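[INFO] parsing input record for GMP synthase [glutamine-hydrolyzing]
[DEBUG] input buffer:
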Amino acid sequence: LVLILDYGSQYTHLITRRIRKLSVFSLCLSGTTSLESITRLNPRAVILSGGPHSVHTPDAPCFPDGFLGWAEANGVYVLGVCYGLQLLVQKLGGEVRVGEWQEYGRMEIEVVEGGDGEGRLYGGDAVGKEQTVWMSHGDEAARLPEGFRVVARSRQGTVAAIESPGRRLYGLQYHPEVTHSTLGMETLQHFLFNVCGLSPGWKMEDVLEQEINVIKDLVGPNDHVICALSGGVDSTVAATLVHKAIGDRLHCIFVDNGLLRYKERERVMSTFESDLHLPVTCVDASDRFLSKLKGVTDPERKRKIIGGEFIAIFDDFAVELEHKLGKKPAFLVQGTLYPDVIESCPPPGSGRTHSHTIKSHHNVGGLPKDMKLKLIEPLKLLFKDEVRELGSILNVPQAFLKRHPFPGPGLAVRVLGDVTQGNALEITRQADEIFVQAIKDAGIYDSIWQAFAVFLPVLTVGVQGDQRTHSYVVGLRAITSEDGMTADWYKFQSEFLDNVSRKICNNVRGVNRVVLDITSKPPATVEWE
Ligand code: XMP
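[DEBUG] output buffer:
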């Protein structure tokens, strides 16, 4: 295990992911985690992340007292990255000062010759003598603690890498986890395998087996488990895994809220039933949702109504199950992912908000408070790409695993204003299907994070078949993104757009104009409401 202690850098998750990509299991905890918790995890190496602080500020976060002594006594390797390096330097009696050069962005560094010969951190210069790295810091190491040597310097002469191999302490002033650091991955690989002596061995197959055993231990032989399937990758993979562990004591519900895409209910139900053999109850609640949404135009009110309705339906489902089984379901499966777990406990003073709270509107309404179900979250240590890999092993069809994300409130956030106005939902479904199918046909679906049509409740004048028309506008949105938090709009070829626009106007009744959304996030959000 490699443990990452998080001091608030925006890149901390990346370190964790990069290490897992090298088939070594890594976990990320707050930078002020107690020594007791660290000891319990028994890591082979600990990486101290970067962060926005200066070690000189009074409340600068730091590893717990006794940490370095414990690491040395137990043969644990420590690598400080950026702020992490500065923490090491300062705590061990060196000097960190505000740098002469504020170094942000790409920077050339060079391995320093000499000293006692071999710089272990780069295996001499085996990783590469010169490299471009990504710096992002104001402070710098001015004087190293005793026993340390400089292993690399930037062109401006600042310390870029240090080590004290006898005490297994290492530091990088730059961010090796960022792709702009040209030999970053090689450096991490060298550190893990050649310096720390770890070997690659962490496999998704083992994760699957472990999780299945955990669930088998947790859920008693007469216990029942429920799960709300959204049609998305996370809940589907979580349910499939739990089903493998406990079979048909899992009971899933899929709700058609009348806000789904073209043929979506049929498509996802066929995957659940025919491909994955999941026990699913499909509830058609379109009328229930749409009658509650009639006339509602405020986006937040729309979301709240949808969330509330989901809770009510889920409650009904649990009561029905209790009658049928003669006992209450005891557990609930949720497809929570690792980024949500990390983000829900940000390091102190990191300035990072609890994105759990930011995203709570993203979950399908939460759960009834009095259900008292125990949670099963089999994906809570995994990143999205790892969940896809796990899904593959569980035979979830590739086309399903690669589907673009779809928001819980569905088309309600893509039909602007009242979702029940005219045939807005039908127009959106048809335009969306044409657009997304064209993207698939062009072979660019996998290069796009999300693509969809939105309904604009605006009537414009047009001319179709020599007739004057007064019809609606459809907007097209396609974005590229790493995680949905920031996004850029996708640059289509104009011929592609021309074809899609013609096809929509010719085939979707009630539309005579198509526009393209060319806004990144920020300032816009991905969805229009
Ligand atoms: P925004 O519009 O906030 O979207 O920039 C970022 C990502 O989140 C998805 N999204 C949602 N997902 N329930 C969800 O499950 C929601 O209420 C919701 N709102 C936005 C959006 O599709 C994009 O991937």
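[INFO] Residues 303, 361-362, 405, 407-409, 450, 484, 521, 525-527 surround xanthosine-5'-monophosphate (CB under 6 Å).
[INFO] shutting down worker
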